[in-house]
Amino acid sequence: VWALLLNRAFSVPLANYCHVGRWLRHMPEGTFVHPSIATAAQKRSECAVGWIAHYVIGAVYALVLVALASDNWLARPTLLPAMLFGIGTVVVTYLVMQPSFGLGIAASRTHRPAQARLRSLMAHTAFGVGLYVCAVGVSYVLRVHA
Q: How many Cβ atoms sit within 10 Å of the Cβ of residue 105?
């Protein structure tokens, strides 16, 4: 929702999860780092693989948050742990994804590194908000069905 809002209001381009799929689809061949993921050979079903991977990774992150949070956090979620965790996940983007895509550490090889970093940080902040909102929903369901 956040990405769509930024796209509609400010013409911020949407993330290209097809590149995530391309990256993953090259891995069985032993290629983990690309000079430029945009110019790497396209792979069959890369867009579907990328979108599925994006949501699976998000779900795994959510489970990690629940595992790391205090025992009663899911019963009574608070915003701060979800926000800190969501923002913290940007480290993987900066240190793994972007360098593997040929963009350099923290997008240092892009035309506008500060803008790329800020966009990633904003996306992961929105993810933190989403983690909190989902935890509130789960908490409600747990109370209603307890």
A: 12
Q: What is the pLDDT of residue 58?
A: 97
CB 83 within 8 A of CB 54: no
Question: How confident is the model at residue 15, as a pLDDT?
Answer: 87
Q: How far apart are CA 101 and CA 80, in angstroms?
A: 31
CB distance 124 to 94 below 8 Å: no
Long-range contacts of 79-82 (CB under 8 A, 24+ apart): 79/129, 79/132, 82/128, 82/129, 82/131, 82/132, 82/135
Select from 99, 95, 94 the least CA-distant residue to 34: 99
pTM above 0.85, yes or no: yes
> How many Å apart are CA 122 and CA 4, to the nearest integer?
13
Tell me the mean pLDDT in the region 22-36. 98
